[in-house]
Amino acid sequence: AEGIGMGWVSIFDPNAFVATEPYTVALNLGPVNKTFNNSASLVMNFDFDNFSIVSATGTQYNKLKALADSDATPLRASELYVAQASRSYSQEVYATSTGERKFDWIVGASYFNDNANSNPSLYASGSFALSRTPPSTTLTSSFTSGATVMTTSSWAAYAQGTYHFTDAVSLTVGGRYTSDERGFTSTSLTPVLRPTTTGGETFTKFTPSANLAWRVNDQLNLYAKAGQGFKSGLFTVVNNVVRPVDPETVTQYELGFKSDPLPWLGVNGGVYYTDYQDLQTTARDAGTGGAFLQDA
């Protein structure tokens, strides 16, 4: 029965199974998750007198079909069906110094291309509105479906060098420049056929790092390091509407030690400080229950 009155809400089907044990959930359908993966890779090594070169090539094809009870209740409140596929290609080439020397180094570049398509369908009934807190008095059912194509073209160049002041003290400094080009084409099929929308954006970032290490003796190492990480911006689809998500940047500082005071005992310790900017988090759409990515 479904009803609203005198401050109470009854939304459960009396014939439905209700979970009564911990860590269990009652669903109104049997979930489906079928995946297919096909990949190939080729790695080539070239050795020279003072350095070596490595080339790594890869390609991958993925396909997914999934049916989920996204409201996780015995009600037929919110159901999601997704059919998607993606094909990607990657290439990386890097060179590293070899042998013992005052200065060790690595330089490289990488390229990645991905083309992904998705055809999600989402059913949301009036029961989902009742299950919300506070419950909605608008009992409407909806069915939405669409088709989206996402493209990614990314390249990066990086370098890192380590200078050994002595046999015990060394400084490592590195950096990476990343450029990600994201694009999309999206079409809403139901409930209203909307014109196809297209768009895209390029996200770039330089991320440095540094590490100072001191080997006090054979049993104790001290270090101090700082670095920055970057997660590209992207586009996420909610109810067949494309929403942009800003890039995420994290900066971290760390002081620590690693020690082996006894042959059978290792003791490590560290202090961290991490600063996130535009943290990307998963949220749930209040109207349909569909999950999507957004900036915190």
Structure, explained:
With 296 residues, this protein is mostly beta strands. Helix content is 2%, strand content 70%. The protein is built from one helix and 17 strands. It has one helix at residues 126-131; strands at residues 3-5, 8-10, 32-47, 51-69, 78-97, 103-118, 121-124, 142-164, 169-190, 197-217, 220-231, 234-238, 241-245, 248-262, 265-277, 280-284, 291-295. Strands 3, 4, 5, 6, 7, 8, 9, 10, 11, 14 and 15 form an eleven-stranded antiparallel β-sheet that branches. The radius of gyration is 26 Å and the shape is globular. The two termini are 38 Å apart. The model is unreliable at 1-13 and 127-140 (pLDDT under 50).
Briefly summarize what is shown.
By secondary structure, the chain is an all-beta fold.
Task: Pick out its properties.
single chain, 296 residues, eleven-stranded antiparallel β-sheet, two-stranded antiparallel sheet
How do the strands and helices of this protein lay out in sequence?
Layout: E1 3-5, E2 8-10, E3 32-47, E4 51-69, E5 78-97, E6 103-118, E7 121-124, H1 126-131, E8 142-164, E9 169-190, E10 197-217, E11 220-231, E12 234-238, E13 241-245, E14 248-262, E15 265-277, E16 280-284, E17 291-295
Antiparallel strand pairs: 1-2, 3-4, 4-5, 5-6, 5-7, 6-8, 7-8, 8-9, 9-10, 10-11, 11-14, 12-13, 14-15, 16-17
